[in-house]
Amino acid sequence: MACMQLTRKVFLFAAGFFIFLLLFSCSALTGIFDYERGEPFVIKKEASPPVVEEPEPSAITPPSQPAVKERLWTILLYMCADNDLEASAMEDLCEMEFSSLDTQAVTLLVLLDRSPAYDTSYDNWYGSRLYKVQSGRTADSRFLISQEIECRDLGLEVGKETELDMSSSYVLSSSLAYARKKFPANNYGLIIWGHGTGWRSGDLTKPEESVFDTGLFKGFAYDGSSGTYMTLYQTGQGIKAGLNGMKLDFLGFDTCYGAELEVLYELKDYAKICVGSEGLISSSGWNYQELFTLFEESEKSPSDLSSAVINQFKNQYAYKTGASVVCLDMENVQPFFDACNSFWKACALKIDSRKVRDDLMGLLYSSSSCPVKRYSYGTGGSDIYLDLPSMLTALNAYFSTAEITEKYEAFTGAKDAFIKENWASDGSSGGVGIYFSTLSDSANLSVSHPAAYKKGTCADQIAFVNDCEGYVPAQNDGKSFLTKLFYTQF
């Protein structure tokens, strides 16, 4: 019995001890897996990286890029030097390089056509090249520092000699289109450089006379290799095609006889400002070092560019006789033309006798005390241009009627709106010219005007001849001013 009781106690003790172990084990497991209840048993873990929110794509700032300077201007100089002006062209290109112009902000492109005959400087190359002008030239530089560039539209490749006919309106239009496409800018300019001719008469039946010598049309861009020039009509068509609906912010004529009403009226839809001379200028033309240095010191507006041209012209031609330059607001060509046309019509009606006609010829041209400024080369075959403001002033004083004075006052208002800035070496104001006649010899006026200056006589006539009823002669109309002076019997 005692033995059985001992066995029972041992059994109960063992059973209790087993239960104790079982309860202790369950409590330990519960401490590992039940994280919401205290921390009976800590398990160390690797720390998780902090959560970083990705920014919105629009808020990402890209890496900074090198600043690209804004191109304020692209200016094309159409330099027609395949003639006796070749040396002057090379000098002018060097002047541009000597200037202090910032050529990152203002791109100067020079399409230069040289002659094989007149100048041997700078490797004596000839043909046509396109340069992107670089400024900062030093006095000891023996080479051009500007960059020759290709223009495949014209077949120009660096290192390859190419001869362009600069008298072709296609060359003009293609070079303009290339400049706009390749060097887009806030403003565009064109400077036509070279010979500017008048309406010299000639005989096309003489085989020894080239087209340029006959001068039946007013023209620019004389090309010695081809023996031709670009007529005023072709010049207008070339600029129009090259701009494709745009307008030049600046148009300059570094030529003789650029500021004539015939020229300005032909180009009125293609430029906002035009600068040129109504008479002759020397072969040295404009001083481009001073011009572009003055321009660099300005705000570089179109008016600043025209003022730079006029100021350098003043300095260069201060002691030259008969020199003048004018800046014109091309938006006001039409009102100026209309006022002149109306005035000429009224004056033509008053020319009703030989005496009146002879008086007017003396007033305008032949008398020693002639009050009207005129421009010509001064030899046989030369054109005679009259200064429009002094011409109309003299005619108004001669007729002195209420009707003509009223029309003269309208002309004065239109002139003030048209002429923005001007200068002349004789102390008067530089103005706008108009073709009058041609010298048949050193002293006498021709009795006939070129066919291209008579209404309805040839194809491709300029707009001035087509539109002007009051001044140019016509085939079957005796009412215009020149018809009364040159073709009417009294």
Strand content: 15-25%
Q: Could you give the order of the helices and strands?
A: HEHEEEHEHEEHEHEHHEHHEEHHEEHH
Shape: globular
What is the quaternary state of this protein?
single chain
Alpha-carbon distance between the two ends: 179 Å
Residue share in helices? 25-40%
Short description:
With 490 residues, the chain is an alpha/beta fold. Helices cover 36% and strands 16% of the residues.
Provide key terms for this protein:
490 residues, alpha/beta, nine-stranded mixed β-sheet, three-stranded antiparallel β-sheet, 14 helices, 36% helix, 16% strand, globular, disordered N terminus
Provide an overview of this structure.
The chain has 14 helices and 14 strands. The chain has 490 residues and is of the alpha/beta class. α6 (261-266) links the parallel β8 (250-254) and β9. α2 runs parallel beside α7 (288-296), α3 packs parallel to α5 and α11 packs antiparallel against α12 (402-418). It starts with a helix and ends with a helix.
